[in-house]
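A reminder from the course coordinator: this example appears on the midterm review sheet, so study it carefully.

Given structure:
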């Protein structure tokens, strides 16, 4: 049986012993045409010679394609059979996210050959692949204007006025949203950008985890937080601050000077960057992972293709805003200090503190890693079973068992939401018990010695 000839979209391999060459052909065809077919068990002239297909053949083939084609593409593997009972393998594939690499290198299809892509051609492909989400930001969402967190909106407008970036006062939520360009054309719903910025429907899932070792084998804490961009930024920053170690130095006057092992300004910049430039249509979500030796911050959506963080930190490249509307609102409300300078501040803070870092574009997003100089050796003289915030809340309750969450927040300089989260953890760990209701009850301190 003969099934034709090789073309720019069809490739034949005699056996799966040529899997590597076949995967190179997949990337090559994807880069030129976006789709194609690969056969195993077929000679170059199209004659089907057959292929031994064991119980693991297709599984191993699928694994090798998934591991070595980057970014990931869609593919489907099936077995075919000729009239004289010769079995062969068909791999159909497609993708619209070129350029695709195979084993870390880039190829392009010419007739029935796979050739390395020139640097100039590769640059063109990267520019074509670079996407922004500006059209998505302006589309109508399923969130009504009535679902806006008005208190959050007012507080942020006030901050914007204090910073001099907003000149108008908050009088009406709809008017403010209109000035920010966050109302859809139907005048009833938020745009996608408005929903993810100010909706009280908790549109974003943020995964937070602490692991017992340097890998994801065993976790000691796991939580899925839901909120809008501002709420998730606050939660992510606070989670890292509460999870890392603090070094206590005693001065000549016996004064305490507590220093975090990772600079807080650097943490803040990377977390904000993750949400400012994230892909909110991705099938992955935002993640904060705390390991014994590092902290990782993951954002769905790739870092601007063809660039590295150093390009913006050291080479004064103009900022590339994948979510221009979201970034502009974050700037106006004073969450972002200035455009395109976050990495510069991060790198300076890390250098000053002696903190190593790394970053990578994964198949589905961007991951930034801070190495932990102190690791799990927390030298602060606060109960190690509690986070720094939990310890402060516990101390406030211990001093006044009738104190309210609002008063605790004022006393320790945290938000009420942060205090409530700490109280929840303290109750779950049986450090405190509530006697009576939330209005006129008191806290009972359990013996933790």
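Designed residues:
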């Amino acid at each position: 049986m003969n099934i034709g000839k090789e073309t720019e979209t069809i490739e034949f391999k005699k056996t799966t012993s040529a899997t590597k060459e076949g995967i190179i052909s997949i990337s090559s065809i994807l880069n030129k045409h976006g789709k194609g077919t690969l056969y195993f068990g077929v000679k170059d002239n199209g004659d089907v010679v057959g292929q031994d297909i064991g119980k693991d053949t297709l599984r191993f083939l699928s694994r090798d394609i998934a591991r070595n084609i980057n970014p990931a593409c869609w593919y489907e593997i099936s077995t075919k059979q000729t009239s004289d009972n010769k079995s062969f393998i068909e791999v159909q594939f497609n993708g619209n996210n070129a350029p695709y690499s195979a084993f870390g290198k880039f190829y392009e299809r010419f007739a029935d050959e796979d050739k390395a892509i020139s640097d100039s051609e590769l640059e063109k492909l990267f520019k074509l692949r670079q996407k922004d989400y500006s059209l998505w930001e302006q589309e109508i969402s399923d969130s009504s204007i009535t679902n806006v967190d008005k208190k959050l909106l007012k507080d942020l407008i006030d901050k914007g006025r204090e910073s001099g970036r907003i000149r108008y006062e908050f009088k009406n939520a709809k008017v403010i949203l209109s000035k920010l360009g966050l109302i859809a054309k139907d005048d009833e719903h938020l745009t996608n950008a408005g929903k993810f910025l100010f909706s009280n429907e908790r549109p974003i899932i943020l995964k937070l985890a602490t692991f017992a070792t340097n890998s994801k084998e065993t976790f000691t804490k796991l939580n899925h937080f839901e909120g809008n961009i501002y709420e998730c930024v606050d939660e992510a920053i606070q989670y890292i601050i509460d999870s890392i170690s603090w070094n206590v130095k005693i001065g000549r006057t016996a004064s305490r000077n507590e220093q975090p092992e990772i600079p807080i300004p650097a943490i803040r910049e990377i977390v904000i960057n993750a949400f400012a430039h994230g892909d909110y249509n991705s099938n992955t979500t935002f993640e904060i992972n705390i390991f014994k030796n590092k902290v990782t911050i993951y954002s769905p959506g790739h870092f601007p293709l063809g660039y590295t963080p150093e390009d913006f930190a050291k080479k004064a490249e103009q900022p590339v805003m994948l979510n221009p509307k979201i970034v502009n609102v974050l700037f106006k409300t004073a969450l972002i200090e200035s455009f395109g300078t976050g990495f510069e501040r991060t790198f300076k803070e890390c250098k000053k503190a002696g903190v190593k870092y790394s970053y990578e574009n994964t198949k589905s997003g961007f991951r930034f890693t801070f190495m932990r100089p102190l690791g799990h050796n927390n030298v602060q003289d606060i109960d190690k079973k509690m986070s720094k915030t939990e310890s402060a809340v516990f101390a406030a309750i211990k001093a006044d068992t009738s104190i309210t969450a609002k008063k605790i927040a004022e006393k320790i300089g945290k938000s009420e939401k942060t205090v409530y989260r700490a109280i929840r953890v303290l109750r779950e760990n049986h450090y405190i018990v509530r006697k009576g209701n939330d209005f006129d009850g008191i806290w009972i301190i359990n013996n933790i010695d």
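The chain has 15 helices and 20 strands. Confidence is low (pLDDT under 50) at residues 376-384.
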